[in-house]
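Form 7-S
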Amino acid sequence: MPENSQEKPKKQSLDATALTVKDAARMLALPVALIRQHIDAGAPMSNGKMNLVHYAAWLNSKDANAT
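Output:
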């Protein structure tokens, strides 16, 4: 079957349990610098990747401790 030049390229899926900082920022519509500040403040990372569930839990615990 010949390749159709009008086919849309397949979107690369992202793994919400292993995102780069740049991908996490893009998914959350946040500046990369803000996420890096959070990492410096203790946001969880594993092997240079961010798990959005763990990040959200960390953010929630920060909010809970601030009040």
